[in-house]
Amino acid sequence: MTQLFGDRAVIANATGCSSIYGGNLPTTPYATRDDGRGPAWSNSLFEDAAEFGYGMRLNADKLNAYARELLTEYKGKGIQPGLANKLLFNPQKDDMDIEAQRADVAKLKAELAKVKEAWAADLSAVADYLIRRSVWIFGGDGWAYDIGFGGLDHVIASGRNVNLLVLDTEVYSNTGGQMSKATPFGAVAKFAAAGKDIGKKDLGMIAMSYGYVYVASIAMGANMSQAIKAFREAESYDGPSIIIAYSHCAMHGIDMMKGMNQQKLSVEAGIWPLYRYDPRLVAEGKNPFQLDSKEPDTSKIELFMANEVRFKTLRDADKDRADALAAKEKALVERRWKEYKYIAERPF
Question: What are the backbone angles phi and psi of residue 75, rounded to the nearest 5°?
Fold first, then answer.
């Protein structure tokens, strides 16, 4: 994400695994450009990351509006009209536009430095907000599906331009391995010692029900180009977006060196479908829901589960229950594929 948008990104990170490996220094997973530009990052509580990031969006929008107000008022009265118009009407729809806006902001600041009036100092202080901010909210499934879901729902329902990245490990990882609403059938976790016997919450479908939220389900180990495309589309969408990313985890009881292989297997088995829902396509008369994964090979569900201790633990303790829950997972995969395929192929 930071390699794509880090030069203008502001990140609100829920407390959890992503904040631990994301906020510890002297190492960091976040990248800077050759010119030193990189993301601004801050960590909030576990439960209110969505609201925290929403506040960042509101702040950026308010300061942008103030900068535009001053720019409009003093155009031709200390600011060259041509430069002011370029700053006011640049759509900033792609990287080239944004770099042009950044260069024009630098020119504006140089002009303002020559003006010894209070309005010039005010505009100089907020001029950087004329460059489009990319606001991101990061967190895991414990936050997104459970404890912070109310805030997440409130924020995506606002219609504001915020991007949410859910790093879905299907369990409360940082807090000790408790089950979440993202935990699948048959997985052993705290509060599900005999294997979880209810299915996973479909967070993507809940978000899609609004009709104006960009939604994507990705797994980098299965389809890197689809994941990058989803990030690009989500960030460019002028509205709320949510990307749900398969995140292999030590809590799964796997060889972490082979995590990407397990991601690929989850998609092939149909356990983790890949899709994108882009509301902009509606205006083009196109179906907004695009199913990016192939028809599942449900025979691979057993292999997927056999690779992970969270499933093997139950099989070793109670084979009959493990078989019954695996059958439930297979039925869920088959039903969900039919539903998604229907939505993807429906006339629009």
Answer: -65, 125
- Give the pLDDT score at 268: 98
169-345 classified as CATH 3.40.720.10: no
Dump the DSSP string for 34-68: TTS---EEEE--SS-HHHHHHHHHHHHHHHHHHHH
Q: Please, which residues have CB within 8 angstroms of residue 113's CB and are 6 or more apart in sequence?
A: 124
- One-letter amino acid of 52: F
Upstream peptide bond of 347 is cis (omega within 30 degrees of 0) = no
Helices (H), the chain: 2-5, 17-23, 49-73, 81-89, 95-112, 118-126, 141, 149-157, 203-208, 224-236, 259-269, 301-306, 309-317, 319-345
Which amino acid would we find at residue 235? E
- Residue 164 and residue 235: Cα distance in Å, rounded? 10
Q: 122-137, pLDDT tens digit by residue?
A: 999 999 999 999 999 9
> For residue 139, what pLDDT is reported?
95
Intervals of the chain under pLDDT 50? none
* Helices and strands of the chain, counted as H and E runs: 14, 8
The whole-angstrom separation of Cα 62 and Cα 50 is 18
Residue that is written with structure tokens 């439930």 in the block: 328
* Angle of CA points 239, 244, 248, to nearest 5°: 155
Q: 201 near 145, Cβ under 8 Å? A: yes
- pLDDT of 23: 83
pTM recorded for the entire structure:
0.95
CATH 3.40.50.970 domain range(s) in the chain: 169-345
